[in-house]
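Sequence, please.
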């Protein structure tokens, strides 16, 4: 295959019966720059997903994963790819037709394409109805150690080289939740950078049930906190404590807003240590809260300033050109 060939990995468990798999696969097949291979990793589906895809989409190669989980499914796919470039997508998300073309163009124009994770800007797509809605690109997390406060990437929007995947090793199959987020942390801490697309290329579907559905938010936050802990141990104690406390405040804010005071109280009791009395932490939290509700045009500036206050150094956000007309932000 050529140096610009792309393999797409789509992981699924019972994707056919969930009702979104056809739209996802059709968006892959409608790419203006087609992928050279599409690998569907079937994680022990019980609804006939594998047989359906083999019959309806002969262009797609179906590989079994024996119910080992999402991280293992991604590793199964990576081990099987034959192309120089690899893209991931979940079984309910949708790519815009120019997704691969733009990201490959970005990579080919780079002097260090194998040291970059190419990430899509995103619009959210509700399952019930409505047009895709804006989702602010989380550039404030796209550096080390700022990434310990939140994930800068949705896996469905990435393109990265097989050389980079070989360098960084497999997704951690021992992590209960957040193996992809862990991977981006590992990349950034190793000097890999993140470059975002110039426009929305991914429609990320929001629906229930979903891994981070409101009823599971408390468990989700606790699992991610556990995943983050080994990475925090690599930092100076003062910085690690500030990041840990800022995460706690942000998670409490989310729980109070979306789940209720009971879940927030449980999280407060479970998460130790409690936030120390620090003006930097409080200033970060207040400015970040303001940014959540600020107009899109100034949101990134506020979040960058908040991160500078917390981490104590100037953070360099990835370049993000304005969205062209005709595409949602």
């Amino acid at each position: 295959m050529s140096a610009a060939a792309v393999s797409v990995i789509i992981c699924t468990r019972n994707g056919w019966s969930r009702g979104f798999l056809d739209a996802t696969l059709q968006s892959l097949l409608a790419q203006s720059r087609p992928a050279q291979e599409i690998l569907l990793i079937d994680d022990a589906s019980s609804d006939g997903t594998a047989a359906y895809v083999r019959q309806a989409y002969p262009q797609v190669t179906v590989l079994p994963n024996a119910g080992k989980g999402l991280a293992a499914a991604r590793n199964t796919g990576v081990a099987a790819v034959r192309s120089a470039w690899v893209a991931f997508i979940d079984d309910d998300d949708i790519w815009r037709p120019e997704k691969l073309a733009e990201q490959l163009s970005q990579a080919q124009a780079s002097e260090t394409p194998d040291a970059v994770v190419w990430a899509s800007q995103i619009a959210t797509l509700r399952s019930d109805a409505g047009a895709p809605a804006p989702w602010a690109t989380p550039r404030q997390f796209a550096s080390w150690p700022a990434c310990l406060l939140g994930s800068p990437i949705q896996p469905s929007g990435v393109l990265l080289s097989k050389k980079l995947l070989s360098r960084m090793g497999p997704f951690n199959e021992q992590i209960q939740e957040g193996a992809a987020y862990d991977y981006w942390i590992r990349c950034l801490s190793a000097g890999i950078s993140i470059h975002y697309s110039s426009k929305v290329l991914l429609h990320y579907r929001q629906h229930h049930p979903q891994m981070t559905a409101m009823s599971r938010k408390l468990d989700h936050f606790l699992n991610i906190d556990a995943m983050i802990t080994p990475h925090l141990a690599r930092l100076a104690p003062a910085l690690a404590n500030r990041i840990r406390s800022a995460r706690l405040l942000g998670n409490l804010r989310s729980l109070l807003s979306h789940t209720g005071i009971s879940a927030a109280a449980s999280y407060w009791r479970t998460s130790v240590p409690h936030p120390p009395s620090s003006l930097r932490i409080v200033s970060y939290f207040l400015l970040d809260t303001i940014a959540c509700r600020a107009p899109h045009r100034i949101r990134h500036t506020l979040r960058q300033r908040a991160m500078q206050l917390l981490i104590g150094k100037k953070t360099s956000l990835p370049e993000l050109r304005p969205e062209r007309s005709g595409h949602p932000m």
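DSSP finds twelve helices and nine strands in the chain.
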